[in-house]
Structure formats: C-alpha cells, structure tokens
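Work Package 4 report. The design task specified in the project plan requires that, given a folded chain encoded as structure tokens, an amino acid be chosen for each position. We show below one input record used in the internal validation round.
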C-alpha cells in the first residue's frame, strides 16, 4: 500500500489543524510501513489504538473551534466524525484484548477516510475559519 504524501492541497490553513492532520498521516504511514516488517500484533494493535485516540483528540479540536466561532455547518461535520468513531469502535474492542493486529484493509480504510474527509469536509471550513481570523 502506498504511503500518503502530504501536500499543500491538504492544508486547511490553520497551523494547529494542519499539524494534527500531518501527525495522523504520519501515524498511518508508520503503521503501513511496519506491517510487512512483521511487528507483533499486540504492539500494532496498541499503535492503531493510539491513532484512533489521536483522531478523536483532533475531532475535538475542530469541534471546539466550530462551537467557539459558530460554524454553521458544524452539525453535519460532527456527524461525519461520529460515524467514523462508531465504525472504528469494533476494531478497538478487538485490539484491546490483543486479538487483532491491524490489517492493510483497516489502514487503507483509515487513510482513505482521513484524506477524503480532509479534502471534502474539512476544506469546507477553510474560508469560514479564515474570515474569523483563525490561522
Ligand atoms: Fe480534520
Ligand atoms: Fe473534520
């Protein structure tokens, strides 16, 4: 599976949020890279858990700005974050017991979801945040 390369089309023009997106992408790339090297499943499960936890922190950061600045499309955006969180909950339950290592399919899903979400849904707040002076 190809690694995700950061480029400027992914920027949402807010340094803190770009930094979080970059870290999420780096975490997915590190995991993708580690799979063929045969790291232990328990270790990998913990790392995926770390990625999911960090994604939740990131969602809370975006949602904090939505609330602070009165972002009109917040409800629909938050729904997407929640749908993602629900979808990965099944995996968390398994990895918590050390039963599953992450599959390429899971990482592919996480990576695809993240990139699509940034390019489509996160990008929708760029002009609004910029007009509010957030950068
Ligand atoms: Fe985001
Ligand atoms: Fe988002």
């Amino acid at each position: 599976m190809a690694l995700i390369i950061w480029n400027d089309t992914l920027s949402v023009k807010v340094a803190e949020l770009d930094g979080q997106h970059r870290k999420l992408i780096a975490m997915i790339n590190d995991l993708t890279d580690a799979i063929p090297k045969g790291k232990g499943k328990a270790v990998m499960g913990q790392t995926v858990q770390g990625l999911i936890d960090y994604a939740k922190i990131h969602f809370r950061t975006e949602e904090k700005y939505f609330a602070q600045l009165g972002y009109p499309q917040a409800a629909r955006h938050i729904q997407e974050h929640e749908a993602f969180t629900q979808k990965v909950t099944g995996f968390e339950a398994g990895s918590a017991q050390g039963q599953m290592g992450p599959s390429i399919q899971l990482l592919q899903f996480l990576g695809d979801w993240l990139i699509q979400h940034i390019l489509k849904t996160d990008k929708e707040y760029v002009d609004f945040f910029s007009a509010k002076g957030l950068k």
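The chain has one domain: 22-30+40-131. Validation will be extended to a larger panel in the next phase.
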